[in-house]
Each structure stands twice: as structure tokens, then as C-alpha cells.
From TrEMBL:
Signal sequence annotation: none
GO molecular-function terms, A-Z: antioxidant activity; oxidoreductase activity
Matching InterPro entries: AhpC/TSA, Thioredoxin-like_sf, Thioredoxin_ResA/DsbE_sf
Name of protein: Alkyl hydroperoxide reductase subunit C/ Thiol specific antioxidant domain-containing protein
Classification via Pfam families: AhpC-TSA
Alkyl hydroperoxide reductase subunit C/ Thiol specific antioxidant domain ranges (all copies): 151-197
Species of provenance: marine sediment metagenome
Length: 198
């Protein structure tokens, strides 16, 4: 896993944190349309009643089953950045890697600063008799180095997909004031905050 650009930090690959997990459909309860107008107590009361419903019990059973069947792996990274995970069953997986700065002296015992990361999805094909000695080589993976932005600096260009499937680019809003709201659908406080943004 090479670096994508020259950096001044010393990378310690053996202190790289990485994990691999089987890709699963993210299960989210279906909140009512009125959830945006509910307070915490009202949403909690709705959720407790919903869990007892047929839909809620089916959701809980599916969630428990998913947790029982989920697979997670950790890998030791060698000095050259290579790693190996043994006996991985067929399926689709997501690999997450974080690279941290190696500090010298007393500072090496403190919290290490994140300077790069990688999220990569791949598939392990079906194998005869459920296993094979033939390795799945992911090839050369590039770590994206994080740029340290300071207040007032130009934001990096990016694009994303909107909820209706269109592409939105930061450059389209050049010269305008942009509010970026980061939220998740399963958090009730995020749902309530949305009404203040309309």
C-alpha cells in the first residue's frame, strides 16, 4: 500500500490499524413522517411500542441474525505495508485501513494523529469445498493522505451523489455560502434537526 503523495511524516506500517468486515445491508427502523416534530421522549415511546409490533419484532430478529452471522477480521501489517488474512469465506467484504504518524520520544505513547486512510470493497469468490489455498490478491492499494486544512483555507474539491441519484459538486457553489449538514437516518436527533434546515 504505497502513499499517494510525498509527506514529511514517518510511517510505521506495523502500527497501522486495519480491519475487514463482510458487507451487509444496513438495517434501519422505518420512522414515521411525524418523527421530525417529536421530542426525545416521544420518539423513545414510539420506538418502544414499535418494537412490540409485528414489524418491530421482525426487524429485531433480522438484526440479531445479522449480528450472529457477521464476520470481522484483523490483519498484521508487515514493515513493507503488506498484510495477509487467512481462511476468509466467500462473500463481499469491506477493508478499512488507517495510517497514523509515528512520533519519537515520550510523544510516541500518546494519541497518534491520523494521516491517511483507505476504504476498499472487494469480493472473495466461491471456492470448491468451501476453501482454497489459492490467495485472493487485492493488488496495490493506495492510501489517501489527509491534507491538514486550517481555518480560512480553500476547501478541497469534491463531488457526491444526491438522494435522487444526481451528482453534486462543490465547485457548483463557488462564490456562495454553503452549509454542509452531516446526518444519519437512524439518529432521532438528526431527523429533528432537519426541520430547522428547511
Amino acid at each position: 500500500m504505497p502513499r499517494t503523495e510525498q509527506v514529511k511524516w514517518i510511517l510505521n506500517w506495523q502500527k497501522t490499524e486495519q480491519g475487514m468486515a463482510m458487507l451487509e445491508k444496513h438495517l434501519v427502523p422505518r420512522y414515521p413522517e411525524s418523527a421530525a416534530d417529536m421530542n426525545d421522549q416521544e420518539i423513545q415511546a414510539w420506538f418502544e411500542n414499535w418494537k412490540k409490533s409485528e414489524e418491530g419484532e421482525a426487524f429485531s430478529a433480522a438484526h440479531r441474525r445479522q449480528q450472529q452471522e457477521s464476520r470481522h477480521y484483523a490483519a498484521k501489517t508487515e514493515e513493507d505495508g503488506t498484510f495477509r488474512v487467512e481462511d476468509v469465506p466467500a462473500g463481499r467484504y469491506s477493508l478499512h485501513v488507517t495510517v497514523q504518524e509515528r512520533r519519537e520520544g515520550r510523544q510516541r505513547y500518546g494519541r497518534q494523529e491520523l494521516i491517511g486512510s483507505l476504504n476498499y470493497q472487494f469480493e472473495v469468490p466461491d471456492m470448491n469445498e468451501g476453501r482454497s489455498d489459492e490467495p485472493v490478491d487485492l493488488g496495490r492499494l493506495e492510501i489517501r493522505i489527509r491534507k491538514r486544512l486550517k481555518v480560512g483555507e480553500m476547501a478541497p474539491a469534491f463531488e457526491a451523489e444526491t438522494l435522487d441519484g444526481k451528482t453534486i459538486k462543490l465547485a457548483d457553489f463557488r462564490g456562495k455560502v454553503v452549509l454542509l449538514n452531516i446526518w444519519i437516518s437512524q439518529a432521532s436527533e438528526c431527523i429533528r434537526e432537519m426541520r430547522h434546515l428547511k
